[in-house]
Amino acid sequence: MPSPIAHAVSGYVLGKFILLSPSTPYQWRGAFFQNFYPVLIATVADFDFIPQILTGIRFHRGITHTLIFAMVFSGMISLIARYYRQQNYKNLFGFTLILYSSHFILDFFTDGGLGLQLFWPFTDMYFKSPIPFFPRVRHNLGLFDARHIEFIIFEICYSIMILMILYCWKIWQSRRVEEL
Q1: Quick one: how far is CA 131 from the chain centroid?
Q2: What are φ and ψ of residue 167, in 5° steps?
């Protein structure tokens, strides 16, 4: 599965693409919404490790990896953010749901594991891509096993690649603005 680094970098890049587009309202262009908010929202689904550590009961890729939870969480966070930032609730909800759902997309394309129960509680079916993009992480090998090198190199290359795409897009956008 992608590490928190891949989820964070993906959320950051996705947030930049959305927030730096010309149609984005000016008041969203603060440091919090451009940097911290996208990273937090894109990684928060994996915070389910906390109750797992405390109780020993398996929580990972459970309820926090369902569409129902994503919508409820996005709704609650958008209400809170709207209260403090005086933002449009509908825009905040959409932005938050897109960022949160980016987590599912990365997990969907991961080798190994059962997949995601996206439509729980309506069905117990697991969904997983037949063509994985992210390599398998073998947690049973321990944290510092040399066989994790493939996974680490892949994550670094993936992160650099999408950050370079963002950088090129920003250059293209600035040239486009200069032409106008």
Answers
A1: 20
A2: -60, -45
Q: Which amino acid is at 27?
A: Q
The owner of tokens 């680490």 is: 152
Distance in angstroms between the alpha carbons of the first and the last residue of the chain: 43
Cis peptide before 121 (omega within 30 of 0): yes
Model confidence pLDDT, tens digit, residues 26-82? 556 677 778 899 999 999 998 887 877 788 777 777 789 999 999 999 999 989 877
pLDDT digits (tens, 9 = 90+) for 108-123: 998 877 888 999 999 9
- List, in sequence order, the alpha helices (H) in the chain: 4-19, 31, 37-43, 49-55, 67-85, 89-108, 149-179
The sign one gets for the Cα dihedral 135, 136, 138, 139 is positive
Q: Which residues pair with 134 in a beta bridge?
A: 110
CA distances from 126 to 100, 107, 157 (A): 19, 12, 28
